[in-house]
Amino acid sequence: MSVFFNKIERGNPMDTTAPKKWYATLKTINQVKEKEVAQLISDETTLNRKEAEMSLDQLEKVLIRLLLESNSVELGDWGSFHLTCNSEGVETKDALTASNIKGVNIRFVPGKVLRNALKNATFKYTESIVS
Fold first, then answer.
1. Per-position DSSP letters for 41-107, written without gaps between them
2. Is 9 exposed, middle or buried (0-12, 13-18, 19+ CB in 10 A)?
3. What is the pLDDT of residue 30?
4. How many CB atoms are closer than 10 A to CB 38?
């Protein structure tokens, strides 16, 4: 298993006169859909594909409900989900209202298992992908 990357040349937006440098950016090869994830789960458990799909559907519903109730949701060593927001700044504390909130984001903070798995990642330049 390898994580693929591309090479991108970028300038420094803070110093447009500085020489450009090359950076690695990760490349997604494929998007795995929920039904395929359910099939993969069913292949490794006693659940059939439909039961695995139902479990994923229920996880989604429960996760949304809990986040919208201002909870952080920890899924064991996977990690945790919580909400953040973007808001307009105002001059005084009393002037800040819910109408100043312009967007809400879901953040995922990986837990120990995922962090450790990422330490074992191997990388391969995308030119090495055989078409």
1. HHHHSS--HHHHHHHHHHHHHHHHHHHHTT--EE-TTSEEEEEEEEE---SSGGG--GGGEEEEEEE
2. exposed
3. 87
4. 21
**Helix (H/G/I), strand (E/B), else coil: 21:** strand
Q: Which domain holds residue 37?
A: 32-71
Q: How many domains does the chain have?
A: 1
Could you tell me what percent of the chain has a pLDDT over 70? 97
11-43 pLDDT per residue, tens: 998 999 999 999 899 888 888 999 999 999 999
- 102 occurs within a structural domain: no
Average pLDDT over residues 82-103: 94
Q: Which residue has the tokens 């990690």?
A: 79
Q: Hey, what's the torsion of the CAs at 113, 118, 120, 124, to 10 degrees?
A: 150
| Token pair listed for 91 | 């001059």
- Using alpha carbons, select from 128, 126, 119 the residue that is nearest to residue 29: 126
pLDDT at 106: 96
In a domain, 42, yes or no: yes
